[in-house]
Amino acid sequence: MESHSTLPETVLQLLRDASAGEEGWAERYGGPEGVERLAVELSEQLSDVAAELAQLRAAAIAVQLRSKSVVQVAQSVGISRQAVYKASRVDGHNPFSRLATSERNW
């Protein structure tokens, strides 16, 4: 499994290789079956990272709402007020909830 630091490079390299379409490009990944397995694994990892980023975004928005209005936050990030309300929901299941409630961590 790739770490978060190498995940983007792995994805980009796979996509570059596939786009170039040079003869035998898939062999370095284990042929078509290897490409398929890697694509599934990378998709799952990217989904996990996207979920973590959404949780971090929610915490960051919650912190901004302490000193700014919903309208100001919405304008600063280019989203609607409703999206700010939705994105700022930080609950106990969010691993970044401690950041949303502490001034010192930002």
Written as H for each helix and E for each strand, in order along the chain, the element string is: HHHHH
Mean pLDDT value: 86
Estimated helix fraction: 55-70%
Strand content: under 5%
Report the total helices: 5
Content-based structural category: mainly alpha
Number of DSSP E strands: 0
Number of domains: 1
What is the molecular shape? elongated
**Radius of gyration computed on alpha carbons:** 19 Å
* End-to-end separation: 30 Å
Poorly predicted regions are none
For the sheet with most strands, the description reads: none
Overview of this structure, please?
63% of the residues lie in helices and 0% in strands. With 106 residues, it is an all-alpha fold. Helix 1 packs across helix 2 (31-64) and helix 3 crosses helix 4.
Brief digest:
The chain is mostly helical and 106 residues long.
Fold topology:
Blueprint: H1 7-20, H2 31-64, H3 70-77, H4 81-87, H5 97-100
